[in-house]
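Lecture notes, unit on protein representations.

Consider one protein chain, 145 amino acids long.
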Amino acid sequence: MKNTIINSPEAPEPVGAYPHARRVGDLLFLSGIGPRHLGSKEIPGVMLDANGKLISYDIGVQTHSVFENVASVLKSAGLGFEHLADVTVFLTNMAADFATYNQIYAEYLSEYKPCRTTVEIGSLPTPIAIELKCIAVFPDTMTRP
């Protein structure tokens, strides 16, 4: 069974000891992907005070950035959004952010319709408001029963 670590040269560096993704057999498991940009600790759409405390954030900017990062990791594995089978979305403020996130999600994935779960959590490891955890299927196996 194929078992390969994948790190994208176009996605931001992981904030811990884990790869961007791991292929196991016919599946690609993406680690949690946030909105940071490659080579920067700054978070798109986030304003922090001098002490690093969150002042404000823009869920739309963060959501677009997350999808760009997911696309980069998928691309490094030779895949695209059409190969996603399952997406788990973590939001830190469901009431305030769901409508915007849901609209942007549809821009990227409504054509492909992967399964999806969206959950609200208290916080993420950095001051981000959204993170995606995805599972993709390699195309040579998508049509088999």
